[in-house]
């Protein structure tokens, strides 16, 4: 089953596109990491998927419905936006009661246990919580809602390292126990590597790559060898990045077939290498030989 299907989705502010031609499919049951440089359009995509924003172009279907189309759709999708919005005048406990009132699938035990474990005072006003505590409260509401799809925009940015690890653990448990699907944006690739089995790299408002993490790692290779024109590479090797010196060429390629050319020394990439290669090379090209010193 597909939880998110975007076809040519774009969002324009005045004359500027915040997201353009975004085409993407995400299957249910995955934890998908959404990465990309600042301003790439990650928050815009999540806002559109949650129904907070309407796209200027294209179509998007989330959990089989149109985002923001009514209460049934809202119940299916949880969203914790980047600024982890909470009601500053309401206490922690009032947030939980509001969550129970508004969400048909509300898991009271989970919410109460999480609040206790985090050490939030139920009587504390949300406006007087620290940034990290506010984020914890918003994340608790998102998980306890028991949505089919949970959208998280940089969920752990404000959390201390221990809280971050525990939150990611909670998330993995919710995925395993309740078949929750998650899309989370983050700049912390090491965190994504721990929890995500699917990755989407968004650069310049377009999807550069979207695939299972295992498949991505198995099909990307760093090739080093004598200086070589990229036009001589086999057609099924998609060049992600290339660097040349006077004598040597280093190229990162995506290829389903094994690299058999004995001229190359073949190295593997970590997930962080892979993300950085896509982020620092915005367009897939086979550039003419040029020396980078
Ligand atoms: N309300 C708005 N009005 C005008 N431009 C906007 C608005 N919101 C976002 N943008 C622009 O759209 C582009 C994409 O922004 P977005 O917040 O989606 O990026 P992002 O990938 O989430 O970035 P970051 O990693 O910094 O959070 C940026 O160039 C941003 O300036």
TrEMBL record:
Q: List the Gene3D superfamilies hit by this protein, alphabetically.
A: P-loop containing nucleotide triphosphate hydrolases
Q: Name one GO molecular function term.
A: ATP hydrolysis activity
- Origin, by domain of life? Bacteria
Electron transport as a keyword of this entry, yes or no, is no
Per the record's keyword annotation, is ATP-binding included, yes or no? yes
Q: Name one Pfam family in it.
A: ABC_tran
Give the ABC transporter domain ranges. 4-229
Which keywords annotate this record?
ATP-binding, Nucleotide-binding, Transport
Q: Which PANTHER family match?
A: ABC TRANSPORTER ATP-BINDING PROTEIN ALBC-RELATED
Protein name per the record: ABC-2 type transport system ATP-binding protein
Which organism does this sequence originate in? Actinocrispum wychmicini
The lineage is: Bacteria, Bacillati, Actinomycetota, Actinomycetes, Pseudonocardiales
């Amino acid at each position: 089953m597909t939880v998110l299907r975007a076809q040519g989705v774009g969002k324009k502010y005045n004359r500027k596109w915040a997201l353009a031609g975004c085409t993407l499919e995400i299957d249910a049951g995955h934890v998908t990491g959404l990465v990309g440089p600042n301003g790439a359009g990650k928050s815009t995509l999540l806002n559109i998927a949650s129904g907070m924003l309407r796209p200027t172009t294209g179509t998007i279907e989330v959990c089989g419905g149109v985002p923001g189309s009514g209460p049934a759709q809202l119940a299916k999708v949880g969203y914790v936006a980047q600024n982890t919005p909470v009601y500053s005048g309401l206490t922690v406990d009032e947030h939980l009661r509001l969550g129970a009132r508004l969400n048909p699938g509300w898991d009271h035990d989970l919410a109460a246990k999480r609040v206790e474990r985090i050490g939030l005072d139920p009587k504390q006003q949300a406006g007087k919580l620290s940034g990290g505590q506010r984020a914890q409260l918003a994340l608790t509401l998102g998980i306890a809602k028991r949505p089919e799809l949970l959208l998280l925009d940089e969920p752990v940015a404000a959390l201390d390292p221990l809280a971050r690890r525990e939150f990611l653990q909670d998330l993995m448990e919710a995925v395993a126990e309740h078949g929750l699907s998650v899309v989370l944006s983050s700049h912390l690739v090491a965190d994504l590597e721990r929890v995500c089995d699917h990755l989407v790299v968004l650069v310049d408002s377009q999807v550069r790559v979207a695939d299972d993490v295992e498949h991505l790692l198995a099909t990307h290779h760093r090739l080093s060898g004598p200086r070589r024109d990229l036009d001589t590479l086999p057609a099924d090797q998609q060049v992600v990045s290339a660097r040349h010196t006077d004598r040597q060429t280093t190229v990162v390629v995506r290829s389903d077939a094994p690299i058999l050319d004995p001229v190359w020394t073949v190295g593997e990439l970590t997930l962080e290498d892979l993300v950085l290669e896509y982020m620092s090379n915005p367009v897939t090209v086979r550039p003419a030989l040029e020396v980078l010193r």
